[in-house]
């Protein structure tokens, strides 16, 4: 709360105050952005917990989600992952790395013509399944999985 | 204040190809420094992308995104000359907004 007050005193403006509130845990980012996948899912320490917190406990496996990632990643700190959803009306995509300390890495919502696909680089602690989770506008979840072998881990150490 | 983002936005057919490189340490909170102290977590938590004044993407990220994150997105219906505005906020409240024009 201290940080919030200081920001206000400095007169950094409304956005600064919101950012500080987010940092202080007063306002969850999901409340600010009305995100499809809620922030608690990022704090889950296992995949089942993350999916459950995201509301995707019963996601159906789908071949319409494409995961492009290397079979073997030499450096776990930088693993390029690209996911593409060919499921109609996909509004949200998330990337989950099974064996990371916090499996959920990213969740993006798409609107106004954004194509439901994204490319990013994730950290992987060890060889693990990489899962792509898609949410459609009718609230259904779909999931696809791909194993990526890691020779040097990217978390901790 | 963090370094500026590098944003590249190009039209490919009817789709805008947007790539962004953010400059951020993305500390996981798992790593220890040489003295054995845990380095506190410091990572980008939320990202928004606006094209032509409309919010096209909003996302949340955890600490498992790589250092100096690179993201690639595609947006249909955008046109050359549209402004791309990308914003991020990290878990310490730092934030950064940068913009580019689709070419």
Detailed description of the structure:
The complex is a heterodimer of chains A (157) and B (103). Chain A is of the alpha+beta class. Chain A has two domains: 1-34, no CATH class; 37-152, SoxY domain (Immunoglobulin-like, Sandwich). Chain A has helices at residues 2-10, 14-23, 29-33, 40-43, 47-53; strands at residues 60-61, 65-68, 72-75, 79-85, 90-97, 104-110, 114-122, 128-136, 141-152. In chain A, strands 1, 3, 5, 6, 8 and 9 form a six-stranded mixed sheet that branches. In chain A, strands 2-4-7 form a three-stranded antiparallel sheet, with no helix packed on it. In chain A, a hairpin with a 4-residue loop joins strand 8 and strand 9 (141-152). In chain A, helix 1 (2-10) runs antiparallel to helix 2 (14-23). Chain A is globular. The two termini of chain A are 32 Å apart. With 103 residues, chain B is mainly beta. Chain B has one domain: Sandwich (Immunoglobulin-like), CATH 2.60.40. Chain B is 0% helix and 50% strand. Chain B is built from no helices and seven strands. Chain B has strands at 6-12, 15-21, 44-51, 54-61, 70-76, 83-90, 95-101. In chain B, the strands form two sheets. Chain B has a four-stranded antiparallel sheet with strand order 4-3-6-7, with no helix packed on it. In chain B, strand 1 (6-12) and strand 2 form a beta hairpin. Chain B is elongated. Chain B starts with 5 loop residues before the first strand and ends with a strand. The relative contact order of chain B is 0.31. The model of chain B has no long low-confidence stretch (mean pLDDT 89). Chains A and B meet through helix 2, helix 3, strand 6 and strand 7 of A and strand 3, strand 4 and strand 5 of B. Strand 6 (104-110) of chain A pairs antiparallel with strand 4 (54-61) of chain B.
